[in-house]
């Protein structure tokens, strides 16, 4: 067991090791270094592959390391059919993407940096799907947002890439904060912080009055990450990233994180009216919006991106539908979509890489120059269209089996699904046929077949989509059924195969194909009608995002002009107002004001003299006619306090007070001589009275707080501890010195460092000012800058 835990931890760390090694490997081996870098995800894939027999038997694998046991925080993982399937997709497709990126970005000056980013994302995504701990899940969830920001904005010199990266970060990062709040509520409701233990608390969570709030917050995290309407706009804009990013993040991994979360929480939060209303509604709406917008596009990647949005909507709709067949359909479609969409994105990248364009209206007749790419595109398109003998056909049949029934709700969502699948059929063959059929046309680059690094990945995924359907019994046993079992938390056996079953699902599949062929036949007209409809509909969520960000920037600017006007006196006044309020208000509100002390009768003459000196010093500060006199007079109070410390048996503290007061007076006097200030106080009487009242309030607050603190019974535990151990442990007789130097050594070091840095900053400012004055005195033009 310990060996399995250590190996799993190593497998989770392999992508991070790849991120560290990538720049050096690419610098040494160039594009061929992709073969070496692909070993890291491949080894992780092989490690997770070992768990298939165990997971297929219905077992789970847990492990990890305790971090803060008192708060139930740990670095732990939980592998069942769902998380194992995602881990295999992430590492398996990740291996192919690393190879693909080696060919796609060959010769790019920042290829090493790109591989580091893709490996960091791979590690973060792997952490999301295997996390057992809530904290670990949230940390990796946010890391996927950060690393995707780096990948989408990889071509940071282009404004469009920077905007898309920022948009993805804002949307998914904001959703991550919602998820954090939702996880905290789940912790509060269930009392557990591990996914594996949360699975058994479904009734407790669903019956809690906080259930709806937790659900909405969790959906906020899932919907933003998986691009559900109205948050769908960030995913197509993310196509500004290089194609390897699109093929990996936005088809098989990151955008499915929200789907994973909903599948994982289905046993806990599912089977409620809110779950079965919200998820199908937003999922169905996203399905329709995504496919309709895909028809309008002419860019190959954008067409695929919008169908990814629609596919995610279909998955969310199935998860929320609630039936056994819906869960089975979601499990099948999850795998099918990862295979065919990853392949088609890479095909789009090959076309762009080898012809110089992705515009479908400028591509034709590529089948002769790129026959292998065409075969791969056709295979993936058949699966996306739901045609046999590919795995997408099995998924589509199971979807119609799940949805088709006689009630109004089922009929509505069946119609939505048929419409969406028909449009996806048309888009699939628009990508797979339009660029390859017809007469060859001139393209920016002469077309030719791609090198092996580019076609290997999509070829493997397309072939897997075929083999998974042909050997469906094996596929279901090791992959599909364990996924559905994990979602349902009960054993599920999926048995759908390529053997046709005459019935309503097959009839709906035939209807989908006929509608898809009709849309494909009139694709140009459909694109035109959709463009007209969108113009009539007005600005969409993407424009709304720009308006929101612009408004936020303007609002922030106005707030900053109020809170940060650049005047030190305002900052100091606000600080002391807060200090006075924090000190006085709680004492008054909670009735903690101290009792008035008895007037002392045993004060000696020399002690009265010290108090009188402090009072005279205060009077000198108030009546001083210039600032330098006030600063020097200010030191009188400090010296008087130091004498009091000395009289009451604290020589070390007294010495420190003498040093602080001396340095304060010297530094303030030095700084004041360098600043161009009027020699006397120019404040009006009202301002002086306000500042005086504020000073009295702060002084009164500290006085009341200290008096209240001294009323409490004295706890001498620390005194006894230091008296006991100062000599035996720290070998020092002076307890105060031992506390400062040994027991609080790090604290003292930090204080010294702060003082040293402050002194250096003051010295630098003085020298800069003195240098500028000398240059101005000599009429040096450089001083004016």
UniProtKB/TrEMBL annotation:
Q: Where is the NADH:quinone oxidoreductase/Mrp antiporter transmembrane domain?
A: 131-414
Q: Which InterPro entries match?
A: CPA3_Na-H_Antiporter_A, MrpA_C/MbhD, MrpA_C/MbhE, ND/Mrp_TM, Proton_antipo_N
Q: Which GO terms describe its biological process?
A: monoatomic ion transport
Outline the extent of the MrpA C-terminal/MbhE domain. Answer: 687-767
Query: In what residue span(s) does the MrpA C-terminal/MbhD domain sit?
Result: 613-676
What are the NADH-Ubiquinone oxidoreductase (complex I) chain 5 N-terminal domain coordinates in residue numbering?
Answer: 69-115
Can you tell which superkingdom this protein's organism belongs to?
A: Bacteria
Instruction: Give the range the annotation lists for the signal sequence.
Output: none
Membrane in keyword set: yes
Q: Which residue ranges does UniProt annotate as crossing the membrane?
A: 31-49, 85-105, 112-129, 166-190, 210-235, 277-295, 304-323, 329-351, 372-391, 411-433, 453-478, 498-521, 568-588, 608-624, 631-649, 655-677, 689-707, 748-766
Enumerate the subcellular locations listed in this protein's record, separating them with semicolons.
Cell membrane; Membrane
The entry's keywords:
Antiport, Cell membrane, Ion transport, Membrane, Transmembrane, Transmembrane helix, Transport
Q: Name one GO molecular function term.
A: antiporter activity
Q: How does it sit in the membrane?
A: Multi-pass membrane protein
Is-annotated flag, keyword Transmembrane? Answer: yes
> Which cellular component, as a GO term, is one annotated location?
plasma membrane
Pfam families xrefs: MbhD, MbhE, Proton_antipo_M, Proton_antipo_N
The record's NCBIfam families line, in alphabetical order, gives:
PRK12647.1 (NF009287)
PANTHER family attached here? Answer: NA(+)/H(+) ANTIPORTER SUBUNIT, NA(+)_H(+) ANTIPORTER SUBUNIT A
Name assigned to this protein: Putative monovalent cation/H+ antiporter subunit A
Which species is this record about?
Answer: Rhizobium leguminosarum bv. viciae
């Amino acid at each position: 067991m310990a060996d399995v835990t250590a190996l799993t931890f190593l497998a989770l760390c392999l992508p991070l090791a790849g991120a560290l090694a990538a720049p050096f490997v690419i610098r040494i081996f160039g594009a061929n270094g992709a073969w070496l870098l692909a070993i890291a995800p491949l080894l992780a894939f092989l490690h997770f592959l070992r768990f298939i027999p165990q997971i297929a038997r219905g077992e789970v694998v847990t492990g990890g390391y305790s971090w803060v046991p008192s708060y139930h925080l740990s670095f732990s993982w939980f592998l069942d059919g769902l998380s194992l399937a995602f881990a295999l997709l992430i590492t398996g497709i990740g291996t192919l993407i690393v190879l693909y990126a080696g060919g796609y970005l060959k010769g790019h000056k920042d290829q090493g940096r790109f591989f580091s980013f893709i490996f960091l994302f791979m590690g973060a995504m792997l952490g999301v799907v295997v996390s057992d701990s809530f904290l670990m899940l949230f940390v990796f969830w946010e890391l996927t947002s950060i690393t995707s920001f780096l990948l989408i904005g990889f071509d940071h010199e282009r404004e469009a890439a920077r905007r898309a990266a920022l948009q993805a970060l804002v949307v998914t990062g904001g959703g991550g904060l919602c998820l954090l709040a939702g996880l905290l509520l789940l912790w509060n409701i269930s009392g557990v912080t591990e996914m594996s233990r949360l699975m058994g608390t479904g009734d407790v969570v669903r019956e809690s009055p906080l259930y709806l709030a937790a659900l909405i917050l969790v959906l906020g995290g899932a919907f933003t990450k998986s691009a559900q309407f109205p948050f769908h706009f960030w995913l197509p804009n993310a196509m500004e990233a290089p194609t390897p990013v699109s093929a990996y993040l936005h088809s098989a991994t990151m955008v499915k994180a929200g789907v994973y979360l909903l599948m994982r929480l289905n046993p806990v939060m599912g089977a409620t009216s809110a779950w079965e209303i919200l998820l199908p509604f937003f999922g169905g709406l996203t399905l329709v919006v995504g496919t309709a917008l895909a028809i309008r596009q002419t860019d190959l990647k954008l067409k695929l991106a919008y169908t990814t949005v629609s596919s995610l909507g279909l998955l969310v709709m199935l998860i929320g539908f609630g039936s056994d067949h819906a869960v089975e359909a979601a499990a099948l479609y999850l795998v099918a979509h990862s295979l065919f969409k990853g392949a088609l994105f890479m095909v789009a990248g090959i076309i762009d890489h080898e012809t110089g364009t992705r515009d479908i209206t400028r591509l034709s007749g590529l089948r002769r120059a790129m026959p292998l790419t065409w075969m791969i595109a056709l295979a993936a398109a058949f699966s996306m269209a739901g045609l046999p003998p590919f795995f997408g056909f099995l998924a589509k049949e199971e979807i119609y089996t799940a949805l088709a029934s006689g009630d109004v709700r089922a009929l509505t969502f069946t119609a939505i699904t048929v419409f969406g699948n028909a449009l996806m059929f048309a888009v699939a063959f628009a990508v797979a046929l339009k660029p390859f059929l017809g007469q060859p046309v001139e393209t920016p680059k002469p077309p030719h077949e791609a090198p092996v690094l580019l076609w290997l990945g999509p070829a493997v995924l397309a072939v897997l989509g075929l083999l998974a359907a042909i050997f469906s019994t094996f596929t279901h046993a090791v992959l599909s059924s364990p996924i559905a079992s994990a979602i349902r938390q009960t054993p599920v056996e999926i048995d759908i195969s390529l053997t046709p079953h005459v019935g309503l699902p097959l009839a709906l599949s035939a209807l989908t194909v006929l509608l898809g062929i009709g849309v494909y036949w009139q694709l140009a007209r459909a694109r035109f009608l959709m463009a007209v409809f969108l113009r009539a509909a007005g600005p969409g969520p993407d424009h709304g995002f720009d308006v929101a960000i612009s408004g936020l920037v303007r609002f922030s600017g106005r707030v900053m002009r109020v809170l940060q006007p650049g005047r030190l006196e305002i900052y100091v006044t606000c600080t002391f107002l807060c200090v006075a309020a924090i000190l006085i208000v709680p004492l008054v509100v909670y009735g903690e004001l101290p009792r008035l002390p008895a007037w002392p009768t045993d004060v000696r003459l020399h002690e009265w003299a010290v108090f009188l000196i402090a009072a005279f010093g205060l009077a000198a500060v108030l009546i001083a006619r210039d600032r330098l006199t006030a600063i020097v007079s200010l030191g009188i109070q400090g010296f008087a306090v130091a004498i009091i410390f000395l009289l009451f048996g604290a020589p070390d503290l007294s010495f420190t007070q003498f040093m602080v007061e001396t340095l304060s007076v010297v530094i303030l006097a030095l700084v004041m001589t360098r600043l161009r200030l009027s020699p006397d106080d120019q404040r009006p009487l009202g301002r002086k009275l306000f500042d005086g009242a504020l000073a009295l309030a702060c002084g009164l607050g500290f006085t009341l707080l200290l008096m209240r603190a001294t009323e409490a019974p004295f706890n001498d535990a620390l005194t006894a501890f230091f008296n006991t151990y100062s000599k035996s442990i720290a070998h020092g007789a002076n307890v105060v010195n031992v506390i400062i130097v040994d027991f609080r050594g790090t604290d003292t070091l930090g204080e010294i460092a702060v003082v040293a840095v402050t002194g250096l900053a003051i010295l630098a400012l003085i020298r800069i000012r003195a240098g500028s004055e000398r240059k101005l005195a000599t009429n040096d033009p450089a001083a004016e800058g």
